[in-house]
Amino acid sequence: MRDRFSLFERLGVQQLGRALMLPIAVLPVAGLLLRLGQPDLLGVPFIAAAGEAIFTNLGLIFAIGVAVGLARENNGAAGLAGVVGFLVATQGAQALVRVPPEVIAGLTGSALEAASTSYKIKAVAKIGVPAGILSGLLSGGLYNRYSDLKLPEFLSFFGGRRFVPIAAGIAGLGLALIFGLGWPVLEAGLDGLSRAVLSSGEAGLFLYGLLNRVLIITGLHHILNNVAWFILGDYHGATGDLKRFFAGDPTAGGFMAGYFPVMMFGLPAACLALYRAARPDRRAAVGGMLLSMALTAFLTGVTEPIEFTFMFAAPALYALHAVLTGLAMVVMDLLGVKLGFTFSAGLVDYIVNFGKATRPLLLLPVGAAYFALYYTVFVVVIRRFDLSILGREAVPVAVVSAQAVAAGGRGGGFVAALGGAGNIRTVDACTTRLRMVLADNRAVDEAALTGLGSRGVVRPNATALQVVLGPVADQVAGEIRQALSRPAAAQPMAAAGPDAGAVLAALGGAGNLQAVEARANRLLLGVTDPARVDDGTLLALGLRGVARPAAGRLHLLLGGPAAPLGDALTLARAGG
User: Where would one find the signal peptide in this protein (predicted)?
Assistant: First the structure.
């Protein structure tokens, strides 16, 4: 699995999955405006037209969003380059597309010109989202490569970031040639893909639902969703299950309806099962967290925080969840239920899009059945196999020092838990998780991250780290970047570190130490009697955090290199 993650990182596939979420984030407002403006709701045409404008220009929005999402520091210059590349590619392709003779047979004059233009516009519109994604990929990559380009003095005005849109325009010409001259092949390929997937019926839907949940581990489910939601099928020029649903296609919605029973009913039931299965002394601690996650899933369809609570702790249980998602796709399709959403399968989208759905009330009995099924499966499996899962595990006691949080807020606490500012190279976020590149992800204190709200951690390779937080991930990423931007002098705890003698005393004395290991800005200690360790005194001495990952194990998080303090404690332990 680690090698597969590394391959995805090298190919940039995971970065694409993350970048796709920026343009997708505009869909809720588009769907809301489009639906509110319809005659069955407010009946205000200009509101509906405003929402339709976003759907019509999704390709351009994806070009901007993907480019910005991939660019270093999410620089807006990459977004401008994405616009240039997209416009050059699509308008150039439109000029190159050949109109089939049967389309213009018998037409002359203005009628011939209008028919030709209409065919070309519709043809290029079919590949609008793929063209936008490709333009964004090229523009983001060009920004990262050439934003610091230095040209001779007489051309210096066009150097650096100003060169990126120029390069994107040239790259757009290449895309225009591919799309324009290769349109017959592209059209045949897209139509063949759509027919193959849509004709696969229940088998295709089951496989889609299954793979969607499996790929969440890597974040690549966004790419799979984009194929289903924006490419498959064609209804009067609208392509993709999501776009066809809002265009009024009565056959659309099959790739979305199956999510509603799982996200609105199944996973909230799993939260209830986790609460009931938790140890009595842990229920109060995990109850609020589980309620928050259940409400988030039910209302908005954001489920990753729930899934990461058992994804790695109970892989077999997660496999069952993936299978049940695929089955939900099949059940809803067999019942003829067609539901759609702009963001995810939560109550908000269900209510707003109720009027466009087919047989939407059937969600209620199916949802009730899924609630009972998930609850029963989770309770039985957890207790039968005595799974060490949320509320039942030997949870490490994680404490993030008030000093670290006071100095840097929540962002400062995350910086400390991530191994300090020197360990953090880049910080990004998608819908529910932080995505970071670190100098060494072994320096991360997972217990401290849990104390700060982490629902799970993924380590794609030795330097990459993903922290699942839920919908607040992007906000937390901004707070971390803000904490990193402060001068080093403003960071808590002096580089000299705390007094070794005082630390030793707070640890219960030299006789209480069994082992000392320094790792980056963290000390890994073994102690004879954990009860003799005074966490409050350690934090008062300037440590950023204290964690107890296991019985007899102690982690001390420092604001600087841990080796000097580690050496002093080792000498004290040896009697030196």
Answer: none
What's the CA gap between 520 and 421, in Å, rounded?
11
Q: Of the residues 485, 512, 535, which one is the last residue of a structural domain? A: 485
Helix %, strand %, coil % of the chain (to 5): 65, 10, 25
pLDDT of residue 17: 63
What values do phi and psi take at 460, rounded to 5?
-60, -35
Residues 6+ apart with CB under 8 A from 315: none
Torsion of CA 475, 305, 448, 442, to 10 degrees: -100
The pLDDT tens digits for 354-406 are: 989 999 999 999 999 999 999 999 999 988 888 878 777 654 444 444 444 44
Question: What backbone torsions phi and psi does residue 456 show, to the nearest 5 degrees?
Answer: 170, 155
Q: Number of structural domains, the chain?
A: 3
Domain co-membership, 421 together with 552: no
Put the strands of the sheet holding 553-557 in their side by side order.
Answer: 397-400, 545-548, 553-557, 522-527, 513-519
Integer CA distances (angstroms), 515 to 54, 442, 541, in order: 60, 18, 21
Considering the entire predicted model, what is its pTM? Answer: 0.68
184 part of a folded domain: yes
Tokens of 542: 């300037």
Q: Are 454 and 528 within one domain? A: no
**What string of H, E and C letters represents the secondary structure of 68-101?**
HHHCHHHCHHHHHHHHHHHHHHHHHHHHHCCCCH
Residue 6 burial (C-beta neighbours within 10 Å; 0-12, 13-18, 19+) = middle
CA–CA distances in Å: residue 566 to residues 53, 423, 543: 61, 19, 13
Question: 3-class DSSP state for residue 560?
Answer: coil
Q: Which residue of the set 21, 405, 430, 543 is catalytic? A: 430
Whether residue 43 is found in the same domain as residue 137: yes
Tokens of 80: 């401008």
| Cα 307 versus chain centre, distance | 13
Q: Is 271 a catalytic residue?
A: no
Is residue 87 located within the same domain as residue 173? yes
Q: Which residue has the tokens 């069952």?
A: 320
- Cα–Cα distance for residue pair 324/532, rounded to 1 Å: 48
- CA angle 331/332/333 to nearest 5° reads 90
The reply to whether 414 and 559 lie within a common domain is: no
